[in-house]
Design a protein that fits this description.
Order of helices and strands: EEHEHEEHEHEEEE
Number of helices: 4
Largest sheet: 8 strands, mixed
Radius of gyration: 16 Å
CATH class: Alpha Beta
Number of domains: 1
Length: 179
């Protein structure tokens, strides 16, 4: 079994996944009165597990909503020692390189992993561990914030698989890593 690592994320036009204060309000700048899922449900249906950074985990906890994930979540952290009691059995803490984490999850039988969180995505990219990118571009320019992509030591080529427009404003592109 070969594990595939997928990214599903939204950015501003200038490539930021959060504003200068770490805020995500820009994600709601396009009205969505019918609460369309913008391709997320189709994506998440093929996912076996989620790997997210600690910052993303804490952000999700801060939403004050019921735990939104139906698949196991693995939080990458070298300092987090436990998860809230209500998430035991749903969330585990992992530590290691993207290669080590991918191998560990593969050995547990997970084949399609959703990688989430800016730093975590960047770490996976640096180790060439991203197989698919789905990026939804929100039509706002933030002028700064947390970038999706950081410095890389090499060029990573992707091929366009599809593109779609949602709500007549949000462009979503799907890329596959060329190997």
């Amino acid at each position: 079994m070969k594990t595939k690592n997928h990214v599903f994320i939204a950015t501003s036009l200038d490539g930021f996944i959060a504003d200068k204060n770490g805020g995500l309000e820009f994600l709601n700048s396009v009205p969505n009165p019918e609460h369309k899922d913008l391709g997320y449900n189709t994506f998440i249906d093929k996912i076996d597990a989620i790997v997210m950074g600690r910052g993303t985990f804490e952000t999700v906890l801060g939403f004050n909503i019921p735990w939104p994930y139906q698949v196991p979540v693995f939080v990458v952290s070298s300092t987090l020692k436990s998860v809230p009691d209500n998430l035991i059995g749903k969330v585990d803490i992992v530590n290691g390189t993207p290669s080590e984490i991918t191998q560990e999850l593969n050995e547990k039988g997970f084949a399609n992993i959703y990688v989430d969180g800016g730093t975590t995505i960047q770490r996976y990219l640096k180790e060439d561990r991203i197989d698919e990118l789905i990026i939804s571009t929100i039509p706002v320019i933030l002028g700064g914030g947390i970038p999706l992509f950081g410095d890389l030591s090499q060029v990573f080529e992707f091929e366009l698989i599809s593109s779609e427009v949602f709500l007549n404003a949000i462009t979503q592109v799907k890329y596959r890593r060329k190997r």
